[in-house]
Every structure is written in structure tokens, then in C-alpha cells.
Amino acid sequence: MNAPDPNFAARIRESFGRQKAMTLIGATLTSVEAGEVEIALPYRDELTQQKGFVHGGILGMIADSACGYAAFSLMPAGGSLVTVEYKMNILAPARTSLRAIGKVIRAGRTLTVARGEVYAQDGTHVATMQQTLMALPDRPDRPE
Amino acid sequence: MNAPDPNFAARIRESFGRQKAMTLIGATLTSVEAGEVEIALPYRDELTQQKGFVHGGILGMIADSACGYAAFSLMPAGGSLVTVEYKMNILAPARTSLRAIGKVIRAGRTLTVARGEVYAQDGTHVATMQQTLMALPDRPDRPE
Amino acid sequence: MNAPDPNFAARIRESFGRQKAMTLIGATLTSVEAGEVEIALPYRDELTQQKGFVHGGILGMIADSACGYAAFSLMPAGGSLVTVEYKMNILAPARTSLRAIGKVIRAGRTLTVARGEVYAQDGTHVATMQQTLMALPDRPDRPE
Amino acid sequence: MNAPDPNFAARIRESFGRQKAMTLIGATLTSVEAGEVEIALPYRDELTQQKGFVHGGILGMIADSACGYAAFSLMPAGGSLVTVEYKMNILAPARTSLRAIGKVIRAGRTLTVARGEVYAQDGTHVATMQQTLMALPDRPDRPE
User: Fold this and answer.
1) A129, B94, C92, D50: least surrounded by Cβ within 10 Å?
2) ipTM computed for the complex
3) How many CB atoms lie within 10 A of CB A140?
4) Mind listing the pLDDT tens digit of every residue in chain D (144 residues)?
5) pLDDT, tens digit, for every residue of C64-83?
């Protein structure tokens, strides 16, 4: 495996900027470290389900992107990643701004396992995700 | 357990209409049967990730809502449901309109297990979800 | 990708015979088709948890092996597979002989997704599993 | 919710002693704290799959029991628990004695979410599990 890219943070910020789905929901990238990425999501009515809580799928979106970029931070430049699968438990309903923190549990040559935690503004643990990603070392991180 | 609500379809259409997150992404309810619900999602650039495919979290959103309403269709009127957890495998990238079909695998008094399948317009199997939901028989399906 | 092995059934029976953990619990291979494998587990007291039901991890063992060999049946000869992850819902407690059926949902070059269902003797649906496996085309299916 | 049982450790040791499946594989309870339980599994050939590694389902068994008893440690006396579902990633193959540590992530009145980690003797992180359990406050933790 080639060395991780020292410019991973710039690469991730640029890639995140192309995630139109993150723009749609209003999520922003708030921290990028090697193996750990944080995303913030301000509360908006548009993000809710029928009971007025943030939709469980929206929780999944920010945890998915946080985990994916945590994995991406440890990869050599030039490649890309796909999400293989994720599993998320919703621990508490949320009607507040949120942050999702993705951390790499194990980075392999082909597969990376990451964990995502979603917290409410008051610190409530809202959701926890376990995710598997696959490296595509020869495929660029942009539309082909 | 009380009998399922014969008016479940109207109840679900009304509840779905209050899922602002579904409006945000442009999803619509296309079929409501007892134990099986279908949601359609027309393709839009705003739903994509950095490689131009529909974001994995968006796939999760429509599968989550389809499974949830499939479970809801078998519940007595007056109560509500929460998603306990879900696990989704992404089987193929998608750059097309999608439909998600949620089906109940087992409906228990407290817990229901459902499965969601997401398909592309050409029939490609895009994602498969396994989900657990919990009934809240005494809590209304609206903001409290 | 090379063609699947026409002798997959013999290869799987031989490999299953080397799964000492299956011998320990008394599981046998009852059906091997391309993309679908069935394992039978006669009831024994030794398989139970504290309430007298078959241990949830035992349900996982037979579903895991059934899914793994279903995936293996579609692979070229000479390689091997590893389980990446699995997720299982337990739908009903079981105090009876069981059978686990694994089926391939999607067979990719590197990753395969399979589903496992566990049934009791009276047909009760006991558990449902969603699993991801990774092909190791250059690694033999035996101790190295 | 009633108070947790101060005698939880004795209650868990007694319950674990009735898990015949743990006896079958040779697992023992090595630590019981409130919300955290550890199980040890000495290596034996009988636990392996076809490549000579401990079977993935065996990893699941010890993680499942460790998580379940971690959840049980926080429950009032007199009730019992069932595993609703679990999801496990296998991070590394293991041909060694193992220990599984289960910890409660969130203990609710009805549902508890726990995490299980499996480690090899040399400290290698072998597997990670996310699990959901349901309390049955009126059902005893023994055969009925």
C-alpha cells in the first residue's frame, strides 16, 4: 500500500464540497484529522420526519459521510472509496443541531471499518453507526 | 394486540405528507399495501455525492421510510413507531431515479422487522436494508 | 473474473467437512446448489442459552456458514472467501432442530452479499441474516 | 424503572453457568462489572473453520453473550433479556485464545444497545459488534 496522502485534509474538503447531498441538507465539514472527521448539521424543519424529529435517514447521511471521509483520510492520493454497508442504531430522537464524528476502527488495504457517532447539541448520544468501506485505488474520487 | 387499522393507507399518506425530509429530497409515496410500501425518488443532482452517484445516505432515507410505513400499515390506529436500527448494503452505484420497497418480515407486538430494497430505473438492485422498528402504542404519530 | 467452478458442490462438501466448528455443534450440509446452500442443525441441549433456547450465536454460526458456502459456490476454483461482516435479527426463540438457508443476493468480483434465513422444524422463521463476504482469489481454502 | 440489582454479578455468573453453549465451546466469564462483562475463550481446534481460524460464528457467540450480560447487569432482578439483533465486523482472522468485552452504550427501559469487542491474545482487534437487546421485565431468566 502506498503512503497516505499528506494533503488529505485539502483533498477531503474539496471532495466534501462536491457532495451536493450535504449542501442540500446544510451539513458542513467542521474537522478533518487523520482517521477522524466531524460534520455539523444545523437544525432545520426541512430535515424532520412526521413527529418533528430529524429523519433517521438524515442521521445516517451525516454519519455515513463522516465515516467515509475518516477512511478516505488514510488512503493514498488518487484513489477513491465506496460505502459497502452500514448499520446504525438510533439511540434518542433529536430535534436539535447535530454533529457526526467518524473514526476509523481498522484500515485495511481493501476494506476499512469505521464507526460514526451522532450527538445532539446538549451532548445526547443520538445514534451510533458501524460501517464498512472499500478502497478503489485506481478509480478517481470524481465523476468518471 | 388491537386489530390493524382498516384506514391504514389514508393514515400513512397523511403521515408521509408530514415527513418534510421526504419533501426536501423529492420522494413520493407510490404504493401503500398492508405490510408493503413503495416510495419513488426522481433523480436530481442535489442528491449526489462526490462521484455523481446518489448519496448512500439518501438510499438509506427512502428505504428507512418505506420500511417504517410498511410496519406502520400493520399497527392499530392511534400509536406510532420509531426506528430502532437499520443495516444497509449498497449493491451498485446509482445515477438514476429510484424506488424503495419496504416489506414486513415479522410483525411483533413490540418489535417489527422489515426489509427494504432499492432499485434503479433499469431494474438494477441498488441496495438492501434490514430494519428493526419499535411500536409506541400510546404515543401519537405527530409532534407532541 | 474466471468462470465458476463446475465442481463447486464437491468442493463445498469437502470444505464444510473441514469446519470443525460445524462438527462441534452437530451441523450438516443438506443441500448445495449454485448460489444457495442449506445446513441442518439437530436440536441438542448443549446448544442452548440460559433460558433453554438455542443460543443466538449458534443461529449465527449456521447462517454464517450457509451464506459463506452460497457465495463460495459461485467462485472460480482455487480461491477462498472471508466473512467481512454480518447482521442478524432473531425473530423467534427456538427450542427445536433448525435449518439455515443461505442465498446470494449479489455476487461481485471482490464482494458478495448474501442472505441467510433460519427456520424451525414447524416452519417458524427464527432468524434472518444479511452478510458481506470478500473473495480472496489467490488464497487457498485451507490452512496456509 | 426499578433500580438495578445490587447482586447483578452473582445473578450473571449463575445465568452464564446455565448457558450450555458456552460450556460446549469452552468459554468462561472472566469479569462482571455494571455495564461491562468479559468472556474468555481458550483456543481449541474444535472451534475452527476450514482455513484453521476460529469460526466467525464463534466470535459472534462470545461477543453476543458478553453484550447480553453487560445489558443484564443494569437490569432489575426478576426479569430477563432477549437479543433482538446484532451486527459484527470481523477485522482479522484469529488462531489464538480470545476475549470478548461487552459494554452498554445506552440502556433504555425497553431496549439496550451494547457494543462487543473481540481481541486476540496479542491484542489484535479481531471483531467488533453492535447489538440491540430487549428487556422482558416480567419473564424470568430461566426456562419457563
Assistant:
1) C92
2) 0.94
3) 11
4) 456 788 999 999 999 999 999 999 999 999 999 999 999 999 999 999 999 999 999 999 999 999 999 999 999 999 999 999 999 999 999 999 999 999 999 999 999 999 999 999 999 999 999 999 999 999 999 998
5) 999 999 999 999 999 999 99
Instruction: Specify the pLDDT at position A107.
Output: 96
Distance (Å, rounded) from C-alpha A46 to C-alpha A25? 8
The pTM of this model reads 0.96
Nearest C-alpha of chain A: how many angstroms from D34?
Answer: 20
Distance CA C57, CA A7 (A): 44
CA-based angle C57:C62:C66, to the nearest 5?
A: 140
- Go through chain C and tell me how many residues it has: 144
- Please answer whether residues B13 and B65 qualify as being in contact, where contact means their C-beta atoms are separated by less than 8 angstroms: no
| Cell output for C15 | 470444505
- Between the two ends of chain C, the Cα-to-Cα distance in Å is 23
Q: Are strands C80-90 and D125-136 parallel, antiparallel or unpaired?
A: unpaired
Chains that touch D (3 or more CB pairs under 8 A): A, B, C
First to last CA, chain D: 24
Asked if residue B90 lies in contact with residue B59, where contact means CB atoms within 8 angstroms, the answer is yes
CB within 8 A of B11, min separation 6: which ones? Answer: B5, B72, B77, B141
Report residue B22 CA to chain centroid gap.
10
C-alpha distance across the termini of chain A, in Å: 23
Does D113 contact C at CB distance below 8 Å?
Answer: no
C82 CB within 8 Å of a chain A CB:
no
Inter-residue contact C67 to C85 (CB < 8 Å): no
CB contact under 8 A, D84 and B110: no
